[in-house]
Design goal:
264 residues, Rossmann fold, 2 domains, five-stranded parallel sheet, two-stranded antiparallel ribbon, elongated
Length: 264
């Protein structure tokens, strides 16, 4: 699926602009599938700057950020990592799901994010890399209820003094987003799917369900309708079946909700 286009329904672009103008790094907080990445990509595009992304996970190592030594034809060289390259080039750096990173990775990252905006290459020559003035950092975090996420240390949080809270958009805005991808012939069914998605999201928010559907799923539902699939089939394949991952009780709970909204 193509990337979700961001519809700025809560003035996030304006907040990002103010932060960019004042050189204040930004933290975007919200669940998966609310358009965090789309927002950052649109903002970088509007600023006409190069966007460099680090997608954090438990497998992300310091070497991904800083670099590694390599041996080629008997010559040892140092291949700089994404963080170092972005600082040298003055890029916009996007730290996606930063609260999935391990403590040692965050420690090195913190060194670069403080007011000096510099980092020592202890892995190589010891050179101190100072970021170009245009270097700007935006990070995102998912709520702690999401798998693999951890609470960010206070010193890392303090590096991002501007915080944007990004939740799922209102139903009318979600409909406008979906219309960017589909024919618009099935508006009533899509509205019903959005209501279902919000019901499931609210249940997940209070931990009654394990999974919260994203905007990608409501878009996928609309696309399947355009290809001739019935709403009852599409809602099962897009929204229902995923819950079998957590067992029959979870699946049946969601199936009952779907039946109440879409019929048998």
């Amino acid at each position: 699926m193509e990337e979700i286009q961001y519809l700025d329904w809560n003035n996030s672009i304006q907040i990002l602009n103010k932060a960019y103008e004042t050189d204040l790094f930004v933290l975007i907080i919200g669940p998966k599938g609310t358009g965090k990445t789309a927002l950052v990509r649109d903002f970088a595009k509007n600023k006409n700057v190069n966007l460099v992304t680090i997608n954090f996970s438990l497998r992300t190592r310091e070497s991904h950020l800083i670099g590694t030594k390599t041996l080629t034809d008997g010559t040892v060289s140092f291949d700089e990592g994404v963080l170092i390259k972005s600082m040298r080039d003055g890029d916009m750096l996007y730290l996606d799901e930063i609260n999935a990173a391990e403590a040692d990775v965050l420690l090195r990252l913190d060194e670069a994010l403080d007011d000096r905006r510099q980092i020592g290459l202890k892995e190589s020559t010891g050179e101190v890399i100072k970021a170009k003035e245009s270097w700007f950092v935006i990070a995102t975090i998912n709520p702690l209820t999401h798998s693999g996420t951890k609470e960010l240390p206070p010193q890392i949080l303090s590096r991002f003094p501007v915080r944007i809270r990004l939740e799922y958009p209102p139903e009318n805005i979600e409909l406008e987003i979906i219309k960017k991808y589909v024919s618009g012939k099935h508006e009533s069914e899509i509205i019903q799917a959005i209501k279902l998605a919000n019901t499931l999201r609210q249940a997940a928010a209070v931990e009654e369900l394990f999974y919260s559907p994203s905007l990608r799923e409501t878009i996928a539902f609309g696309k399947l309708l355009d290809k001739g699939m019935s709403a009852k089939e599409a809602v099962k394949f897009v929204f229902g079946n995923v819950y079998t991952q957590w067992g029959n009780i979870e699946y049946q709970k969601v199936s009952d909700i779907i039946t109440s909204m879409f019929g048998d």
